[in-house]
Amino acid sequence: MKKIFLALAALLSLVSNAQEEKSLLWKISGNGLTQPSYLLGTIHITCDATLDEKVLKALDETNQLYLEIDMDDPELQVKTMQGMMMKDGKKISTMVSAEQYEALNMLFLENIGMSLKMLDNFKPSFVEMMLLPSMLDCPMQSIENELLKVTKEQNEDVYGLETIESQMEIFDAIPYEEQAENLAKLAEKGIESSKEMYKRMIAIYESKDLKAIAEFMKEEDNSMYEEHSDVLLDNRNKSWIADIEKAVKDNPTFFGVGAAHLPGENGVINLLRKQGYKVEAVQ
């Protein structure tokens, strides 16, 4: 159940030596800024999304919130549903064997009470994400939702670094057949295997070690993400920088994006440093 980590964010890329400090919260300053902004690496789905004191302090010191997408958009749900469908009338049932499809159908019936036949024309990566609640032995929580809640309490604005439409299109750039193959592997390995992997991922995230996160996502089972890191991470990171720069120059800003977007040569931290900003871990 690895594609979940990146749909909604993610965790790959090599970590440079300058980024080996164990922190998920980073302060952006210098380059003419009169007030700092902050960058937080998030995990989209977890068991405990409680924001620590450092994050709450950074939210108090900033005047607006940027997430990967504007989660306050009233049309978010409708746009998401529209973007989940495969193009050209393609179906999962034509991309896997009859045996694999039946195994997947049983997996969905047992875990979410829904037949896979109802989702046959959905992008396989999104179909797999629907199993996420079954991966957790706890009520599902979201760091983005917690950031959003605090921002609303402070009567501040929420923005997105990209549109929901562009985020949905990411999964058109990765071959549907490849996504379906990864979905079929989930049924072959069983739900318990995915549960254990997700527990490991949460533990690594909570260690705040970006290098460990990157190494986890380079394991054999995650090869699809490394092969498509340009689409999933690098290109998106580069496209965000102009908007990040404009935001921090206009207003002290808090940014919350998937932790995978922070490290590496093409990570947000390094790209901002290349633009002349001081980006330092908040310890």
The gyration radius over C-alpha positions equals: 19 Å
> What is the terminal separation in angstroms?
32 Å
Order of helices and strands: HEEHEHHHHHEHHHHHHEHE
Helix content: 40-55%
Whole-number mean pLDDT: 88
Quaternary structure classification = single chain
Reading side by side through the largest sheet, how are the strands ordered? 4-3-5-2-1-6
Put simply, the count of helices is 14
Biggest sheet details: 6 strands, mixed
Number of E-state strands:
6
Which residue ranges are poorly predicted, with pLDDT under 50 across at least 5 consecutive positions? 1-19
- The helix-and-strand class reads alpha/beta
Which range does the strand content fall in? 5-15%
Shape estimate: elongated
What can you see in these coordinates?
The protein starts with a helix and ends with a strand. By secondary structure, it is of the alpha/beta class. The chain is 49% helix and 10% strand. It is built from 14 helices and six strands. The N terminus is likely disordered.
